[in-house]
C-alpha cells in the first residue's frame, strides 16, 4: 500500500504565480501520490510553527525565514522557491528564467516599434530579496542595446508600506522626463500596475505615450490595469508539477531527483497596454498594422505593400532599414506567435488550429511553425503546457 506522505506548503496564494505553483503541485499529487497537505495560504508572512511540531515527510517553501535551516538540520526532503541570489545547497531549488523573461519583454516592445525604453523594478523587502528584478532588468537592457538603442534608464519602487502617493508622484515625474513614445518593462505585473497608475497621474496615455509590459501574466492584476496590461507568461504550473515530482523522488530516497528546476517563460500575452505600432514612418506603421491584424489569415507580401500604399521594393527597403529583416519574416513571425498562443492558451487539436488559421493541411502548418520556432507544434505544446 502506498504511503500517505505529509507535505508542508509555505507558498502564498495572494499572487497568480503562487496559485499556479499550487495548481501544479495538486495535479501531480492527484496523478502520482497519496499526499496530505499542511498549507500556509497567506502572503509572505512566515508562520511561527516549527517543522518539528508538524511531523512532515517533505516541505515546499519560499527561501525566506529560518525554515531552510530547519529542513537541512532535520534532513527533511525540501524544495525551495528561489527569491535570493544564491541557490540553497542540499535542497532542490526552483528558479525563474529571468534572462528569457527580460529578453521576451524587450523583443515585444521592439516589435511594437518603440525606440525609447525604460525599466521599472522593485527594491528588496524584509521578507523578499529581489535579485530576479535585477536579472530581468539586465537581460531587458542588454537586448535593447543589442538592437542599437541606448541603455534604458531604470526606476526602483520602494518596499510595500512606503508612502504610495509620494512614490507615485516620483514615478510620474520620472516618466514625464523621458522621451515618448516610451516602451516600459515592469519586473512583474504588480509593478506594471503601478506604472499604469503613475501614467494616469502624469497625463500620459497608455499605450500611445507609454507602452507597458509586465511579467508573470497574473490575469487578475493584468485585467485590473487600465488599459489591460501585456505580460510575459511564465509556466509556474509546470514548475509546481516538476517540483512535486522532485520532492516525491527525494522522499522515496531516489538519486534521480533534479537539483534545480527552471521556471520557463513561454510567450508574451499581448493586451491593450502595448496595442500600438510606435513607428514614425507612416508607411511602415500601415504595413505593420496590416500584418498584425491579419495574423490569423494567410497574407502575402504584395497585399501588405498594397495596404501600405507603396511599391513592394520600397517597402522591403524600409523594412530592412528599420526592422532589420524582410516583410515575409515579419509575416511569419506574427503568424507563428499567433499559433504559439493558440497552442498554449487553448486545448484545440493541432489540426483544428491549422484549419482556423487558413493552412491547407497539418503538415504544411507544422513545417511553417518549425521553420521559425525550430520545434514542432506538438513538441512546443508539450514542452510549455
**What is the CATH H-level superfamily of the largest domain?**
Response regulator
Mean pLDDT: 87
Largest sheet strand order: 2-1-3-4-5-11
Q: How many strand segments?
A: 12
CATH level-3 fold name of the largest domain: Rossmann fold
Shape: globular
CATH architecture of the largest domain: 3-Layer(aba) Sandwich
The profile of the biggest β sheet is: 6 strands, parallel
Distance between the termini: 32 Å
Strand content: 15-25%
- The portion of residues assigned to helices is 40-55%
Structural class: alpha/beta
In DSSP terms (H or I, runs of 4 or more residues), the helix count works out at 16
The arrangement of helices and strands along the chain is EHEHEHEEHEHEHEHEHEHEEHHHHHHH
Provide an overview of this structure.
- The strands form 2 sheets. The protein has a 6-stranded parallel beta sheet with strand order 2-1-3-4-5-11, with helices on both faces. Strands 7-6-8-9-10-12 form a 6-stranded mixed beta sheet, sandwiched between helices.
- The protein contains 16 helices and 12 strands.
- It has 3 domains: 4-96 and 236-265, Rossmann fold (3-Layer(aba) Sandwich); 98-233 and 268-274, Response regulator (Rossmann fold), CATH 3.40.50.2300; 282-384, Homeodomain-like (Arc Repressor Mutant, subunit A), CATH 1.10.10.60.
- Helix 1 (16-32) crosses helix 9, helix 6 (164-177) packs across helix 7 and helix 10 packs across helix 11 (301-308).
- It is α/β, with parallel strands linked by helices.
- The model has no long low-confidence stretch (mean pLDDT 87).
- Strand 3, helix 3 and strand 4 form a beta-alpha-beta unit.
- It has helices spanning 16-32, 51-54, 67-74, 98-111, 131-146, 164-177, 189-202, 219-224, 236-251, 282-293, 301-308, 312-322, 327-345, 350-356, 362-373, 377-384, and strands at 4-10, 34-39, 58-62, 78-81, 92-96, 117-122, 154-157, 182-186, 210-215, 230-234, 260-263, 265-269.
Amino acid at each position: 500500500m502506498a504511503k500517505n506522505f505529509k507535505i508542508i506548503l509555505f507558498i502564498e496564494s495572494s499572487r497568480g504565480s503562487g496559485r499556479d505553483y499550487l495548481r501544479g503541485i495538486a495535479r501531480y499529487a492527484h496523478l502520482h501520490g497519496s499526499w496530505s497537505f499542511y498549507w500556509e495560504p497567506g502572503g509572505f508572512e512566515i508562520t511561527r510553527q516549527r517543522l518539528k511540531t508538524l511531523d512532515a515527510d517533505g516541505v515546499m517553501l519560499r527561501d525566506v525565514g529560518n525554515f531552510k535551516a530547519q529542513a537541512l538540520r532535520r534532513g527533511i526532503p525540501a524544495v525551495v522557491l528561489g527569491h535570493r541570489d544564491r541557490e540553497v545547497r542540499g535542497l532542490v531549488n526552483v528558479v525563474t528564467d529571468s534572462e528569457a523573461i527580460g529578453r521576451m519583454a524587450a523583443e515585444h516592445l521592439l516589435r511594437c516599434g518603440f525606440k525609447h525604453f525604460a525599466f521599472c523594478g522593485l527594491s528588496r523587502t524584509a521578507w523578499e530579496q529581489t535579485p530576479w528584478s535585477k536579472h530581468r532588468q539586465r537581460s531587458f537592457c542588454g537586448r535593447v542595446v543589442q538592437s542599437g538603442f541606448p541603455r534604458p534608464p531604470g526606476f526602483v519602487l520602494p518596499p510595500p508600506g512606503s508612502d504610495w502617493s509620494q512614490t507615485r508622484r516620483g514615478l510620474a515625474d520620472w516618466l514625464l522626463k523621458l522621451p515618448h513614445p516610451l516602451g516600459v518593462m515592469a519586473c512583474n505585473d504588480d509593478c506594471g500596475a503601478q506604472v499604469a497608475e503613475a501614467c494616469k497621474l502624469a497625463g500620459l496615455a497608455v499605450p500611445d505615450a507609454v507602452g507597458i509590459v509586465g511579467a508573470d501574466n497574473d490575469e487578475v492584476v493584468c485585467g485590473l490595469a487600465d488599459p489591460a496590461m501585456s505580460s510575459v507568461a511564465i509556466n509556474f504550473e509546470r514548475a509546481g508539477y516538476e517540483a512535486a515530482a522532485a520532492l516525491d523522488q527525494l522522499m522515496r530516497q531516489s538519486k534521480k531527483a533534479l537539483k534545480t528546476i527552471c521556471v520557463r517563460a513561454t510567450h508574451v500575452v499581448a493586451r491593450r497596454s502595448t496595442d500600438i505600432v510606435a513607428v514614425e514612418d507612416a508607411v511602415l506603421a500601415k504595413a505593420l498594422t496590416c500584418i498584425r491584424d491579419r495574423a490569423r489569415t494567410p497574407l502575402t507580401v504584395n497585399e501588405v505593400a498594397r495596404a501600405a500604399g507603396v511599391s513592394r521594393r520600397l517597402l522591403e527597403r524600409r523594412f530592412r532599414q528599420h526592422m532589420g529583416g524582410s516583410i515575409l519574416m515579419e509575416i511569419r513571425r506574427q503568424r507563428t506567435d499567433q499559433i504559439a498562443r493558440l497552442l498554449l492558451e487553448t486545448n484545440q487539436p493541432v489540426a483544428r488550429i491549422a484549419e482556423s488559421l487558413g493552412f491547407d493541411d497539418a503538415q504544411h502548418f507544422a513545417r511553417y511553425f518549425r521553420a521559425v520556432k525550430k520545434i514542432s507544434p506538438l513538441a512546443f505544446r508539450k514542452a510549455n503546457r
